[in-house]
């Protein structure tokens, strides 16, 4: 069975001490650090920009998994790469030329991801799957933590996992939204290789982070 990585979303961390939160979740066993960037335009919420990513960079050596929910996207790719992102994930609806955006991310030496909203079909990947490192399947509508898992997305994960296997590609399938100890095994069963969790990872404060991550791995 494929390995399962845990990428806790700092959207659910205590924003008044983000550096400490990143250190704590890293020490608790996070594989990646998921950073949700929202612009109040592509999604109805505003979070953080490249300056915060840069400030957090010294707090962890784990890969920064940066999920960009901003449009237009292209003017910001370089800024997040410079700030210390390792994986940069974009939504196809966030710019006019997805292929070009991916090329730019790769040219900067970063891993490239494409994120699909719940209503966006897997077909969107037909001409880019060979170019990318990761597909991020949203199991909630993007914008907020703490929403309910949309189970219809399991079928999409399965279909992408089949395509990846059929084409013999090395592409992670990351699932994002409403992931907890109950939904994690369903996502893994469908083919997810990376689990994002905000609420379930940061629940109860730092003394609970290791147990929270272990519970998510319980399905692995
Ligand atoms: O990208 C997003 C939301 O748009 C996510 O990364 C959330 O932060 C996940 O939070 P939970 O659903 O796990 O609370
Ligand atoms: Fe996210």
From TrEMBL:
Protein function: Catalyzes the reversible epimerization of D-ribulose 5-phosphate to D-xylulose 5-phosphate.
Pathway: Carbohydrate degradation
A cellular-component GO term for this protein: cytoplasm
Species classification: Bacteria, Pseudomonadati, Pseudomonadota, Alphaproteobacteria, Sphingomonadales
InterPro entries hit by this protein: Aldolase_TIM, Ribul_P_3_epim, Ribul_P_3_epim-like, RibuloseP-bd_barrel
HAMAP family recorded: RPE (MF_02227)
Family: Belongs to the ribulose-phosphate 3-epimerase family.
Active site: 36 (proton acceptor), 176 (proton donor)
PANTHER family: RIBULOSE-5-PHOSPHATE-3-EPIMERASE
Binding-site residues, a divalent metal cation: 34, 36, 67, 176
Protein's name in the database: Ribulose-phosphate 3-epimerase
GO biological process, one term: pentose-phosphate shunt
Domain of life: Bacteria
Reaction it catalyzes: D-ribulose 5-phosphate = D-xylulose 5-phosphate
Keyword Isomerase: yes
Cofactor note: Binds 1 divalent metal cation per subunit.
Sample GO molecular function, one term: D-ribulose-phosphate 3-epimerase activity
Group of enzyme by EC: isomerase
